[in-house]
Amino acid sequence: MPKSVLRPTVPAESAPLSAHDRVYRGLRQQIMHGELPPGHALTLRGIGKSFGVSMTPARESVRRLSAEGALTLSASGRVTTPELSNERIEELASIRALLEPELGSRALRRAHLALIDRMDIINDANARAVNQQNPVEYIRTNLEFHRTLYLRAQSPAMLGLLETVWLQLGPTMRALYTRLRRTTAPPHHRLILEALRAGDDAALRLALRTDVTQGLRHLQA
Amino acid sequence: MPKSVLRPTVPAESAPLSAHDRVYRGLRQQIMHGELPPGHALTLRGIGKSFGVSMTPARESVRRLSAEGALTLSASGRVTTPELSNERIEELASIRALLEPELGSRALRRAHLALIDRMDIINDANARAVNQQNPVEYIRTNLEFHRTLYLRAQSPAMLGLLETVWLQLGPTMRALYTRLRRTTAPPHHRLILEALRAGDDAALRLALRTDVTQGLRHLQA
DNA sequence: ACGCTGATTTCGTGATCACAATTTTCCATG
DNA sequence: CATGGAAAATTGTGATCACGAAATCAGCGT
């Protein structure tokens, strides 16, 4: 594979993206966006083939993702997406309920109108995904709505931690959202946007917390 | 499934521990306990040799640890322990200040006297490490003091997240503790123990928060 | 003494392979 | 028709290798 020939003048702004990175990002997105159900089995050779690489980068990606809780390794090394117990789901939800209000609060001071408008647009796409009953698109836009806000918090470590929590919840969220097909958009997104416009810290924290906890508690029924 | 019959002479109680796991655990402990200064360079071949394995398990361990923020990969793939900016240190400290009071509070309901006694003993060892001005032993016993409490919270995901934060801070804590050799044990451990004995949730949360923030703020001078 | 350039060494990456263990398949037996 | 177990296919593990890129070093010139 004459890779250097095929990449004559690499656009300097973007990294060349190693094989491992492509596989990692691809798998990570599939998992976080709920494209895989809980308990879905994967193989290193299969992953490698679907990304056009050998086992080696596939294995590294799997190790990395399993370290983040996005994949489960059985005792014999078999790879599956995690099947979370109810206890674990509740714990992850409570972590979200702890981190997200904090991130929102930090972002509030730096949020300007352009940001809120952008979130509004994303929220529309989210509502559309609900109408289409498209779980993957719903999860994707929902996460993008939150991440757009949290990026303004300028707290990369905290956001990174939160993303690993989202990652762990990906397959479970898919299962829950496909099981009971919801027909109404998450109601608290409006409250979040209002609190942002008003610059009301307490209201924003509350809206974020209830959005997270209600969203998951509503599904555990 | 008569697997136990077919198994030759494996010690049943402990997993065989794959090469990758041994390397991962070994490196992780070195980093978390502050045995390596910030910016310390590592090589895959060197890691492999020091653990008696080939590059492959070494590489997987490094990938995993870098995913957790315990190691930094340069653009060319070079491996070093992270050199944290002051901003990053503050952010990680505020994450600790967010998670640790929550974990402590959850543990409080389940904490019995034997646990507090154990923490007392660990705290003595911690004070001894201060007198000996032994940074590694100080960090180790300090973390063990906290972890002993948080294990009772029965919140493995939250504790896991916290440990990755500790991991990221390992080399920096070593640098800080060796730079200014402190001569007095952390004063808030007493407050933590008192709050535990009194069953006072608010006091425990406060003591944990100040222990975390003061501990790091005291060193940034 | 200092800086630059070219050679050499070191290093990470990704592919491939042998091997052992597991899982699956399939057929014979009750 | 179910069931048990042997054979075959599949899978993860770890070692090794070639390759290109990066870092280190040597030697030269200024």
From TrEMBL, chains A, B:
Pfam families, per the entry: FCD, GntR
Domain HTH gntR-type: 17-83
Keywords (A to Z) from UniProt: DNA-binding, Transcription, Transcription regulation
Protein name: GntR family transcriptional regulator
Organism: Roseinatronobacter alkalisoli
SUPFAM superfamilies in the cross-refs: GntR ligand-binding domain-like, Winged helix' DNA-binding domain
Top-rank taxon: Bacteria
InterPro entries: GntR_C, TF_FadR/GntR_C, Tscrpt_reg_HTH_GntR, WH-like_DNA-bd_sf, WH_DNA-bd_sf
